[in-house]
């Protein structure tokens, strides 16, 4: 078995940490050659770099260079390494550091587990090197859309997202013309069963209480609004080339079935496993091979029930909006995502109510007539995003003021 070298982008996050666990548990299969993060946690990043033997470490925050350097020395000292017998990893810092890491440290696989559409450039850089792109950062695919697809060779992108990993598994050995529908499962989030009017006062802590998955903050809030499922609808269309009218979403609160494919003869194949991202991460790194023991299997010796229910589209319109944005194409998926990123930031910062998140996405999309055309290049995607973020901030400002006025009247 040849060992695969891996660059882990977003190594300090939820997916990044689990990916490093998978690599550490399988030293005969994988080795980490570089790690990258934003710079928010230099001590963790330094510990990861030294523990994995990474050749280089990248941080996007330019001022983090010294923090990472000090943390690397402290970690080496803590381990009792002396300067003579130990090669300190190279440090790259600044807005271009992740791109430089990808360009200068060759790897078989680039795992993009950065959060947000800031991951677009790393996605395109990784594809340009010819490495396999293990894609957790769905936002880069949604924002870049056709640009990312054009940059990728067939099979070069392997999904990490649990639903898309499930679909990829269900499609193995099948033929495209036999596929009738894709069915994405959604947990329904922490507010499943509530009505829209019950959501006005929910707190960040309420929205962070995901029923089945422990994940980073942005995707957790996106699960609560169902924007995550909206993004995943667009992701499924782009990855598997199935038209939107043949992709459904069903609520499955137990998160045991990660998605399904219905075939032309009426057969449905579903992929099931307890919710644990180490399974799709290991499969993406090992693709097409499975990594034995990657995660706990499903148990059928205990009484259990797996249930399915339709999505309440009135309370959670995010999937319907994503469908409209995806069908319209052009830069609208980028607009959908960028407006959401701004609104989530405002909600987490305590500046706007939960219900303003999807409302803002809706209103920004309503004004986005100018962004229907196919982007000619990355600059146009970035321009669409900048427009959407500014528009969202304008709208969110109005929401905050309205909230204050309403409270005064109470
Ligand atoms: N968590 C999960 O189970 C799943 C996640 N995903 C997707 O995977 C991606 C990562 O999610 P998750 O791990 O939960 O997120 P986290 O918030 O836990 O981690 C994000 C990581 O990205 C890094 N980062 C942030 N900004 C930058 C930047 N500008 N340059 C380089 N690195 C940066 C962070 O570094 P720092 O610590 O320094 O800020 C951190 O390492 C998202 O796209 C998400 O949608 C998909 C399916 C499941
Ligand atoms: C683990 C994973 O892939 C997440 O995207 C997860 O699916 C979120 O759960 P929701 O179904 O609540 O969005
Ligand atoms: Mn998912």
TrEMBL record:
Cofactor(s) this protein requires: Mg(2+); Mn(2+)
Spans traversing the lipid bilayer: none
Pathway noted in the entry: Isoprenoid biosynthesis; isopentenyl diphosphate biosynthesis via DXP pathway; isopentenyl diphosphate from 1-deoxy-D-xylulose 5-phosphate: step 1/6
Keyword Hydrolase belongs to the record: no
Domain 1-deoxy-D-xylulose 5-phosphate reductoisomerase N-terminal: 6-145
UniProt-annotated binding residues for Mn(2+): 161, 163, 232
Positions with a binding annotation for 1-deoxy-D-xylulose 5-phosphate: 138, 162-163, 187, 210, 223, 228-229, 232
Residues that coordinate or bind NADPH: 12-15, 38, 41, 137, 139, 216
Domain 1-deoxy-D-xylulose 5-phosphate reductoisomerase C-terminal, chain residue ranges per copy: 157-240
Keyword terms, alphabetized: Isoprene biosynthesis, Magnesium, Manganese, Metal-binding, NADP, Oxidoreductase
A GO MF term: 1-deoxy-D-xylulose-5-phosphate reductoisomerase activity
Catalysed reaction equations from the record: 2-C-methyl-D-erythritol 4-phosphate + NADP(+) = 1-deoxy-D-xylulose 5-phosphate + NADPH + H(+)
Domain DXP reductoisomerase C-terminal residue range list: 273-390
Family: Belongs to the DXR family.
PANTHER family: 1-DEOXY-D-XYLULOSE 5-PHOSPHATE REDUCTOISOMERASE, 1-DEOXY-D-XYLULOSE 5-PHOSPHATE REDUCTOISOMERASE, CHLOROPLASTIC
Function: Catalyzes the NADPH-dependent rearrangement and reduction of 1-deoxy-D-xylulose-5-phosphate (DXP) to 2-C-methyl-D-erythritol 4-phosphate (MEP).
HAMAP family reported in the protein's UniProt record: DXP_reductoisom (MF_00183)
Protein name, UniProt field: 1-deoxy-D-xylulose 5-phosphate reductoisomerase
Species of the source: Actinophytocola gossypii
Organism ancestry: Bacteria, Bacillati, Actinomycetota, Actinomycetes, Pseudonocardiales
